[in-house]
Automatic annotation (TrEMBL):
The chain crosses the membrane at residues 27-45, 103-121, 128-147, 153-171, 178-196, 223-247. Pfam families: Peptidase_M50B. Keywords: Membrane, Transmembrane, Transmembrane helix. This is Peptidase M50B-like-domain-containing protein. The keyword Transmembrane helix applies.
Length: 254
């Protein structure tokens, strides 16, 4: 007689087992933690913080790209994007829905960072997910180059496109993992810090949240900042948890 297997309800232990990292995933988690610690240390060191400077500008560019992408999705015409040496940025557009474009800067860069962290868990031999992530980042950089208003942004995009191309051809792309992970961690941390610095602690008078609060008058800008902060933490957590789940299944491990 044929054996009929009845489906079993998923238990809490099943979830715990699925989230238990493999040896490869433990290494990835250690790399993420090391990156976060190194970024926090270098951030405040007077001389060594220059190491982070290109990546800070890159995360600002991702922030501005997120504004532009939301603008494109809501019918806006993007006129220009620029970033400044003092790590500021501006996106100029005509039209669009400000209720979507204003929060997109912080939330979009957090989401991009979380997706890159998720992709960084790819330890397969062909590294297809990492390669797709690097291609996506390359497309974002080319879009930024198209919209760029100043030479700082143009130079930044050309530099990082060159880094991506170089990593593709070094040791079969093994360096893409570390690059994609670092950009993901940097983008998430920078976005979280920006939200707290600009919106929660109110170190700037005018911000995306203050303009958003004028559009949606139900909450002050600090409350919107806290809401965006919670959403950004959620993106970061989902990126890590999804990486633990998806790539464990992909590698045929249970």
């Amino acid at each position: 007689m044929p054996v009929i297997l009845e489906p079993r309800a998923v238990t809490g232990q099943d979830v715990v087992d699925r989230l238990r990292p493999t040896p490869e995933q433990r290494i990835t988690l250690i790399i993420i933690g090391a990156y976060a610690l190194a970024i926090l240390i270098l951030w405040h060191l007077p001389v060594l913080k220059i190491i982070l400077y290109p990546f800070k500008l890159l995360t600002v560019a991702l922030h501005e790209f997120s504004h532009a992408a939301a603008g494109c999705c809501t019918g806006a015409s993007i006129e220009s994007i620029q970033i400044d040496p003092d790590e500021g940025g501006a996106t100029r557009m005509r039209g669009g829905m400000s209720c979507c474009t204003l929060p997109a800067g912080y939330l979009g860069s957090s989401l991009i960072g979380a997706i890159f962290i998720f992709c960084g868990f790819d330890d397969t031999d062909n590294r297809i997910v990492l390669k797709v992530a690097s291609i996506v980042l390359g497309i974002i950089l080319i879009a930024l180059l198209y919209w760029a208003k100043n030479w700082l942004l143009r130079g930044l995009t050309i530099f990082f496109v060159g880094v991506i191309v170089l990593l593709w051809f070094i040791n079969k792309g093994v360096g893409l993992k570390y690059f994609v992970l670092f950009v993901g961690v940097m983008s998430c941390l920078y976005s979280l810090w920006d939200i707290m610095d600009d919106l929660v602690f109110r170190k700037v008078n005018e911000s995306d949240a203050s303009r958003f609060a004028k559009e949606c008058k139900c909450c002050p800008s600090q409350i919107w900042g806290i809401i965006w902060l919670i959403i950004s933490f959620f993106f970061l957590g989902i990126g890590v948890l999804a990486g633990l789940l998806v790539f464990k299944q992909h590698n045929g491990q249970t």
